[in-house]
Amino acid sequence: MKTKKIYIVGALLVLGLASCTDLDRSPIEQLSDASYWKSNDDAVKAVNDLYNCAPEWDGEAIIGLTDAAINSDDAVHGIKWSEGNISKGIYDPQDFDWAGNYGTIRQTNIILKYVPTVASMSDTEKAQAMAQARFFRAYQYFQLIRQFGDVPYTESPLTLEEQKDVKRAPKAEVYKHILEDFDYAATNLPKTWDGADDARITKGGALAMKARAALSQNDWKIARDAAKAVMDLGVYELYDQGNTGKYKELFWTATDNGCKETVIKKQFIAYKNDWYLIGWEAFPTIGWGGLNPTQSLVDAFEDKDGAPIAKSSTYDPTKPFENRDPRLETVVLHDGESMYGATVKVAPLKSCAPTGIGTHGDATATGYNQQKWLDPTVDPKTDGWHMDMDYKILRYAEVLLTYAEAQNELQPLDQSAFDAVNKVRARVGMPALQKTDSSKPTYCGTQDELRKRIWNEWRVEFALEGGHRQWDIRRWGIAKQVLNAPFYGLTYKLVDSKDADAKDGGKICILYSQDKDAKRVEVRKGHYEDHNILYPIPQKEIDLNPNLTQNAGYSK
Questions:
Q1: C-alpha torsion angle, residues 275, 278, 282, 283 (rounded to 10)
Q2: Could you tell me how many helices (H) and strands (E) the chain has, helices first?
Q3: Which of 544, 537, 231 is nearest to 403 (CA)?
Q4: Is 0.90 surpassed by the pTM of this model?
Q5: 99-136 burial string, b = 16+ CB within 10 Å, else e?
Q6: CA-to-CA separations, 503 to 360, 494, 496, 500, 508, in angstroms, rounded
Q7: Which helix (H) or strand (E) holds 264?
Q8: Which helix (H) or strand (E) holds 227?
Q9: DSSP label at 504?
Q10: Which of 20, 75, 245, 459 has its CB surrounded by the most CB atoms within 10 Å?
Q11: 8 A C-beta contact, residue 427 and residue 238
Q12: Which one, of 400, 84, 372, lies nearest residue 249 by Cα?
């Protein structure tokens, strides 16, 4: 069991800090210097609580840390009733909320107000406490502007009377403050924390999140420079950068401690703050669907020579998992594989129950299951519901891809952009992208060719990791294209056979058949309109505060 110092503090529950409240609702009880703020320990406890407050770390409390992948073209949910409206292209203002964001912002503003008054704290202790608070304030505002655009902005704990006059501030203004907060955090936080404090935000964490925020706004120079600053710290490196075949372990419990690729992580403690990912999403023994990769995602992985499969001379669509980017096997659990004592059979036949397509209501919808977090040392029936595995919120691979993308936008085809993206490819044995030999499938002779290959690298490296893909397709301007296309699963063909199982009515299934009469599993059709690049302002907030306006395209 891991020992952690970042926890919800019982004393703060009494004082009101642990609950996340709405900007427009009753404010958290003001903590006065007479009642609480007396020591460094008081400040540490208050800061600790920021690490626990909703929304979840991927920026959306709607469905959880990894399930946000269904809001993109990468996956659907096999557990059909759990798919939210966003994944279906429904953006109802009644569904949205920002109470958790503003509750955390209020907590940061209380900390920033009172920490300077604690006489017993040293200047360094005050700066580190305030740096963590400003990181979280910046992070929450970043989530807000990415989702809603213009949002209310405050740097002080507002009273109920003050909240009545709150209006939306321009996104550009809020973004400017976000960068200032991240800069303060980076300046005043250490490169590393010791021991049980290792999950605290570091200098590198603040810079890396600043880079993510800047990239979300296509602010190329800020994103490039922040990513380069992380690279220059000399603290981080890719896990298994020597390509010894351990890439899949990056997503297992074995890499919770001491993994130099982890820049920011969320810690879980079994039976205290459980992460039930394996129990929820990956139960092949009883056929729960969990996250189901789409055929589009499967097809995004190149062949082993670095060619997109549409241009590959080695790819065989009837044997789609042969001669591919090794990351495909890490991401996708497919027919014939064994996991947790069961062999997965995905054909839509009774003999393939419970893991076959359509054999029950929660079976795979596409013929594929997610595999990324399926740690073989975790029993899915027990520990799978009470995992203490860490979730890697921000990995060094993201820093390298951020640098590569931003640098290519600023200086097209610059070698340093190639170098950065190729580090991510090399650690799984994928050949380097290059600009010198046009005879090879890895050739990128124009800025746009390299741009598209970097985009694809984002997709395959961070496949099924929360909201990555959802926000990438928006900032790239391709959301309308990919979300309005039908979502498909694998192809198959049922044929008569004397060798058929007695349960299957004389039929056997040929998976991945390319015959003209083969069936292509169509999961659903998407829906996305231009104005969906922003979410609607939560209706409950507009009802409470008439000063708040609705985003264009949504009903009043």
A1: -120
A2: 17, 11
A3: 231
A4: yes
A5: bbbbbbbbbbbbbbbbbeebeebeeebbbbbbbbbbbb
A6: 15, 14, 13, 8, 10
A7: strand 262-266
A8: helix 220-232
A9: G
A10: 75
A11: yes
A12: 372
Tens-digit pLDDT profile for residues 433-461: 999 999 999 999 999 999 999 999 999 99
Q: Which amino acid does the sequence have at 23? A: L
- Long-range interactions of 442-450: CB distance < 8 A, separation 24+: 442/305, 442/306, 442/307, 444/413, 444/418, 445/413, 446/412, 446/413, 447/408, 447/409, 447/412, 447/413, 450/408, 450/412, 450/413, 450/417, 450/418
Q: Which residues of 185-212 are buried (b: 16+ CB within 10 A; e: fewer)?
A: bbebbeeeeeeeebbbbbbbbbbbbbbb
* CA 479/CA 512 separation, integer angstroms: 28
Closest CA to 523 of 493, 482, 490, 494: 490
Question: Does residue 354 have a cis peptide bond before it, meaning omega lies within 30 degrees of 0?
Answer: yes
Q: With pLDDT > 70 as the criterion, what percentage of the chain qualifies?
A: 90
Residues 524-551 have pLDDT tens digits of 888 999 999 999 999 999 998 989 999 9
Report the C-alpha dihedral over residues 459, 463, 465, 468, rounded to 10 degrees: 20
- C-alpha dihedral (406, 409, 413, 414), degrees to nearest 10: -50
Residue 341, CB half-sphere, CA atoms under 13 Å: how many? Answer: 7
- Determine how β-strand 342-343 pairs with β-strand 338-339: antiparallel
Instruction: Give the amino acid at 201.
Output: I
* Spatial distance between the Cα atoms of 494 and 506, rounded to a whole number of angstroms: 10
Phi-psi region of 287 (alpha: psi -120 to 50; beta: other; left: phi over 0): left
Distances in whole angstroms, Cα of residue 483 to Cα of each of 75, 215, 479, 519: 11, 21, 6, 22
pLDDT score for 273: 76
In three-state secondary structure terms, 492 is strand
Q: Which residues is 522 bridged to in the sheet?
A: 488
Nearest Cα to 504, choosing from 352, 374, 382? 352
pLDDT digits (tens, 9 = 90+) for 474-525: 999 999 999 999 999 999 999 999 999 999 999 999 999 999 999 999 998 8
Residue 140's pLDDT band, with cuts at 50, 70 and 90, is very high
Contacts with 364 (C-beta within 8 Å, 6 or more apart), sequence order: 78, 287, 289, 292, 346, 355, 356, 357, 489
Question: Any residues with CB less than 8 A from the CB of 311 and at least 6 apart, and which?
Answer: 441
pLDDT tens-digit series, residues 71-94: 999 999 888 888 889 999 999 999
Alpha helices in 149-219 (DSSP H): 160-163, 171-188, 203-216
3-state helix, strand, coil in the chain (%, to 5): 40, 10, 50
